Amino acid sequence: MAQGLIAAMIRWITSLFALWTVLGTAWAWFVPAHFIWVVDGTFQPFGQSLVSVLLGVVMLGMGLTLSPQDFKRLLTMPRCIGAGVALQFTIMPLAGIVFATLFSLEPGLAVGLILVSCCPGGTASNVVAYLARANLALSVSMTMVSTLIAVIATPLLTGWLAGVFVEIDRWALFRGMIMVVLVPVIAGVVLNRLLPRATAKISIISPLVSVFGVVLIVGGIIANSKPLIMEHAGVLLLALLMLHLTGFGLGYVITHMLGFDEAEQRTCAIEVGMQNSGLGSSLASTPSFAAQFATPMQAALAPVPSAVSAVYHVVIGSLLAAWWRRSSSDEISGEDT
Question: What is the pTM of this model?
Fold first, then answer.
């Protein structure tokens, strides 16, 4: 009884992911000292940056929730998953290069914008899909597949598109993806397989830990980059707004044209429009990535788009979820009458 109540409370707290992100960002903006320790090198667990370790914990939490049944489920909806993931790695990367060029972003911002646009769907999309009364199983499956594909796709796409602005070390980016995405996810899946009872208990709290980890990452980047954000706020905010609106909009419209049902359209729109901004921030903050820029200032700009993106996509996604949830309730009420 008590365990069930705790689990319900954690699910409720986790469902407010957008609120925690916005509040955490505001906190970091007004009191940077409370978050700067996340990115200033004060803490380096296992000799790694704290941002990378936090993201690894988030990915481990994702792996802990996966079971053989989740992989079997992929076989039941190949068309939806295939189309959604294809849109994820075409619409957003192409929109990223278009808006980076259209708004004449400085190299650091342009590369950061393209990097986050080439990242897979974020785990927050699963929460938004649930709130929007979309297809939650499809959302989880798409996030899983896009995350695994991203190990190869993100370095290749970023290197190809961002190479217009800076020569990207694809191999270093690939190594980063292996360490902060693939290894933790696989470790989580293995632990779930070998220790199902223990992981079942841990997985109750892991979504909340993931939310906490992402808020810390985003808050740290915002706190560290506040002067740069203020200097470039206008053009950067507009470019990121257009990026996410394009993802949500085309994700919905194209799947409608493909004949998907309403729940599937909503799911694909959410998955395409919401990126793993924590991953983008982590990758852009690594020394190897920063070394690619001509000046330290440009390197410092690279993680900023991902941090701002995290706020944008959860706010837009949450507003859409509220609208869709209300429209679904109205439809149900209409049918009852």
Answer: 0.83
